[in-house]
């Protein structure tokens, strides 16, 4: 019997257990273009298949490029706690960049927890061992940030962004899907809070949801941003963003170009802190759609 996408998502949400499946199972793809591509399977193979569906890594990265990968790696927790992007996902993206001829690959985040503890506990440094010209940094010092203006921001009009992001040739957004006490969920749109110097003002000076969408009007219009890979291998369904909480093994990865669609799809995979949400119930997703960053309408996605 064929299982529809909706039935599969309901099964995952209800049990938190991955159903036995072929090595790669395609969940969804937009009919006309890969607005959203999602697969279930082993992490490395899944990331590679998604990038292939998006056009292949050589479409996005050229020989000699300086590449920045922006995962969520700001928490000093072990990988199985699911506070950070899966280490295999990060390594696979770095490998792909090198295979395309990248001159260097920087894996960067402005951490929530102290950088030395993140380095020791996250497992990311060990995961990238043996890859030449790949550098992992938790960036805090103000000298590594540059000023940017956000002309279309409603509240957030300017901020400081990592200089490496401003100066790179290719940028990849590599968030993970997890619950969040203030934002409901943390996925692709919210992941950029780790790219700026002063994330605290997004909480205290501005409406955080509006600031997330405001920054989106800047970063998603940057030609250097190539695509998003949203890691839902293991989602932190409760207790996010740092945990501990309930970890659900969904073994799912989502990719594409539309940040609203990607986050909306990720939202549909699980309940979050015990509740199910529609995209319009997560304020920053709703605002981002209103500001024309993408569409939460997933009705034109087909199931495998």
Q: Can you put this structure into words, describing what you see?
A:
- With 304 residues, this protein is of the alpha/beta class.
- It has a single domain (5-302), classed as Rossmann fold, CATH 3.40.50.11440.
- The chain is 28% helix and 25% strand.
- It contains ten helices and 13 strands.
- The chain has helices at 5-15, 43-54, 87-99, 115-121, 124-127, 163-167, 200-204, 208-219, 259-267, 283-290; strands at 24-30, 36-41, 66-71, 104-109, 134-138, 145-149, 158-162, 170-174, 176-180, 184-186, 225-236, 247-256, 301-302.
- The strands form two sheets. Strands 1, 2, 3, 4, 5, 8, 9, 10, 11, 12 and 13 form an eleven-stranded mixed β-sheet that branches. A two-stranded antiparallel ribbon has the order 6-7.
- The longest helix has 13 residues, at 87-99.
- The radius of gyration is 18 Å and the shape is globular.
- It starts with a helix and ends with a strand.
- Mean pLDDT is 91; it is low at 1-22.
